[in-house]
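Subject: Sanity check before I submit

Could someone independently write out the structure tokens for this chain? I want to compare against mine line by line before I put it in a report. The sequence has 239 residues.
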Amino acid sequence: MGSDLTRRGFLAVAGTGVAAGATTYWPPAEGAERASRARPLKIVGVCCSLRKGRSTVAAMQVCLDAAKAVDPENIETELIDLAEMKIPASPAAGVDLEPGAADDFPALAPKLSNPNVAGIIVGTPVYFGNMSSLCKAFLERCMAFRKSDFALSNKVAGVLAVGGARNGGQELTIKSVQTALLCQNMIIVGEAKPSCHGGAAVWNNGEKFLNDELNQATATSLGRRVAEVARRVAGVAAP
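---
Independent answer below. Compare away.
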């Protein structure tokens, strides 16, 4: 998708789409349970690795599968791989794109602010103890949601980080992404009981890294917790 929008023009375009899909789940309105069951809640996983379909995507799928398993009849999931998109950071800083430059964020924004989306899980690989450059660009572009009356308000957010070592900076990365999501007025959650850590800290220790018991446990726990809280915020009774 080509674009040469200025920052003001971008925010107007993206804000229109964002505002059109904006919702607030909290507190649940009367009849919220019936409405939610008529319209399934969606949990979206946003993968911010520059490598298409690799370990971050695989770990995110575990998260999303666990989220859906909480309430299969009322929860839908979607995985978005940003490696397939162009998400330039410059519009967030008010810097115009070059004429004809691709920018997929304006088309992505309404997907995330859609009323059906009750939870968003952001996944990123770890580079030097922090998030990927693509993840940072994505989070900076999320300024559009703040400009649209905090269109992500009260959506539940979780963070997954994949590192090249067991203790390779995953927790620092999770906290960094969480800080950005807090600025969106989202509801930040970590793993479910009994672990209750900050997020899914995954170790990519080889081709079969998802066979690792701890990797499975942390990704599953995060997905389950995001779904549990999203259902509570939406006022959906226990299945």
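---
OP: Matches mine. For the report I'm noting this point. Strands lie at 41-47, 75-81, 117-125, 156-163, 187-188, 200-203.
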